[in-house]
Amino acid sequence: MSVSLHDLFRTEAETQCALLTRGLLALDEGGGDAKALAELMRAAHSLKGAARIVGLPAVVDVAHAMEDRFVAAQKGQVKLEAAQIDALLQGVDLLQRIAATPEAEMKRWAQERDEIEARIASFSAPTPTAPTKPEPSAEVPLTEAKPAPVAEEKQAADDLVDRLLRINAESLNRILGLAGESRVESQWLGPFARSLERLKRMQVRLAQSIDLARDAIVPLPGAQIAELRMREAQQRGAKCQALLVEQLAELEHFHRRSASLSHRLYGAALDSRLRPFADGAQGFPRMMRDVARTLGKKIKFQLVGEQTPVDRDVLERLEAPLNHMLRNALDHGIEPPNARLAAGKPATGHIRLEAAHSGGLLQVTITDDGAGIDPAAVRRAVIARGLSTPERVAEMREAELFDFLFLPGFSLKENVTEISGRGVGLDVVRDLLRQLRGTVRLTSEPGRGTTFQLRLPLTLSVLRALLVEIAGEPYGIPLAAIDSTVRLRRDALAQLGGRPHFEHNGARVGLANARRVLEVSGPPTSGGDLAVVVLGEGLRRHGLVVDRFLGERELVVQPLDPRLGKIPDVSSGSLTDTGAPLLVLDVEDLLRSIERLGASDRLGALDETAQAAQRKRVLVVDDSLTVRELMRKVLTAEGYDIELAVDGMDGWNTLRAGDFQLVITDVDMPRMDGIEFIRTIRGDPATKQKPVLIVSYKDREQDRALGLGAGADAYLGKGGFSDESLVQTVRDLIGAP
User: Fold this and answer.
1) Structural domain range at position 379
2) Pseudo-torsion of CA 210, 213, 214, 216, nearest 10°?
3) What is the 3-state secondary structure (H, E, C) of 35-77?
4) What is the CATH number of the domain that holds 589?
5) Cα dist. 515→346, 472, 636 in Å?
6) DSSP 384-424
7) What is the DSSP string of 489-508?
């Protein structure tokens, strides 16, 4: 896309004006020194030079006048105090407006330019004999400057072009989306490579079976031909195995290179969309200074994490809610100087805006050391507006009370001003954050101050989510919308109003079954500890019971076909690592569904999990998907509650996290084989009495002796395996389901 010099200058002016504003505010707070003045002078000089290149005399004149004042301040001829800084800041405002003006309308700034120049010049001049209107410096004439050499102007323009490149936002979003898809798709190779590893182990077992068959045939009369065929089969199997090992090594190498390349591609594409947090916050220090002076208050505003990278879409949409919360902190929170002194505080209040990355999310925190929020005042306001009964309000914790502050029209401020007090703002803040898949949390301490904590995704095209299983299907829940996840023991539940609750961080949280909310059904769930995702905040906090946690993932968000309309409780779609489709839940919609079902008494109890609690649980550990599914179907049909694990290590982690009456395990498995798994079980006081059944292809006497010697209670060979023998052995070990 072609870039005009005027477009490039606009970007240059934005950067230099930000430097000028930051430096002037530092001077206003008394933090200026010779170095700060030198930086201000350089910023004005650079802006003047860039304006001359693109032919903007109005900018040249104002920037030059400002440059002269900074030089005079360096020489001690000018003292830049509040009034002078106000004039210089107005000059910066004018420069920004001129830079944003279309080229054809530049002439309209002549009068305002003269007024600003005169005001800047009125408070001092570089030399005692200087006239009111600034004269050109000896180095660079003001109104009749000699044009710079053509080569120099061309080089300056080329430098601007080298630094900047305009690209359509839609194109950039498309590139980032494709890079995200590439990253997710590359993860498919990992599970595929592991499946080939299982195939390799199956070939090894096949070769062992052929060995056993050959050993059994050799003593028989006339077995020479059969032995020859066996040897041929062994040779061919060995060649297949060697080829598979070779190809598997190449696949592993390709997987590593592909994953690394896709990760770097996605990182580079994401970086192109990221901007430093300061780009969206650079106007706040000036705004806070002006509002504080309007209110007659003294503040020190601190911006931390200016270089924290943020998605440009998130940053642009975040500016309005941050603006409102900062104004609120200054108007509602920070006390007037005399009130602060009377309370034993410094006359100058502190407001801090901080941005940082935390747990894969963007965390923005606004903190003030003002009066804080009085819970008693909130209680009175809630009762006065009829939002709750006095008895219920008296029982509410502060977190529940503060949730009312985010309701439309709710305000503790009696006087309506231009700054705040109309009861409009925090509800809009929360709604906008929900659109960005973010959350806001408020904490306050009377007399000490208030803190707003915002958590948002780093980018809108790729979602960090918790994958959960509900009725046998995977679902994604945005991490930013999750308060916490807990594994809840059933004896920790209490019934309240016909609905199960539990204590969480000092508050009662109601439980809802995800199957009932989403109106889905599937195989019976586990009867052990409950897997709970805590969603919402304050009065709208609920615990969603899912079948199990599948771990955190980065998902490329795919919008659903608009012909489907709005699907209840679902926001978008995505794919798992294996390419299987999954739905991403709309947490705000989900919370409304929970509340709607609760209000109509249709939420129900945790009936499926309650029934499952009465069934005996069996852990099946086998690296073969076929064997695992076979055992699951056979034992589930008998009424047992089955949990699956893919190897010894996975089985050990699952066993420690749940309550099982029996463990069924294979012998040959990756990471931790069955023998080591059994010895680990027997070596732990919490599991050493747990019955263990081995089901293995290894059916020789020495194999049985090894398994039983390790601590297994029974041993079944897969060669002579039958549904009846499995069920009968399980019944012998732990009884009926």
Assistant:
1) 282-357+369-433
2) 160
3) HHHHHHHHHHHHHHHHHHHHCCHHHHHHHHHHHHHHHHHHCCC
4) 2.40.50.180
5) 55, 10, 19
6) HTTSS-HHHHHH--HHHHHGGGGSTT--S--S--SSS-SS-
7) -GGG-EEETTEEEEEETTEE
Give the model confidence (pLDDT) of 647-684 as tens digits.
888 888 888 877 889 999 998 888 788 999 999 999 88
CB-based burial of residue 115 (10 Å sphere; 0-12 exposed, 13-18 middle, 19+ buried)?
exposed
Report the 10 Å Cβ neighbour count for 105.
9
The number of residues in the chain equals: 737
- Examine the domain organization and report whether 125 and 181 are in the same domain: no
CA distance 56 to 60: 6
Which pLDDT tens digit goes with each residue over 344-353? 999 999 999 9
Name the residue type at position 734: I
Residue 661 lies in a domain: yes
721's CB contacts (< 8 A; 6+ apart) are 695
Please give the full DSSP string across 215-282, using - where no structure is assigned: HHHTTSTT-HHHHHHHHHHHHHHHHHHHHHHHHHHHHHHHHHHHHHHHHHHHHHHHHHHEEEHHHHHT
Instruction: Record the pTM.
Output: 0.56
Query: Which CATH number characterizes residue 402's domain?
Result: 3.30.565.10
Q: Are the CB atoms for 531 and 548 separated by under 8 Å? A: yes
- SS3 at position 304: strand
Look-up of token digits 């993932």: 553
CATH code, domain carrying 204: 1.20.120
Count of the separate structural domains present in the chain: 5
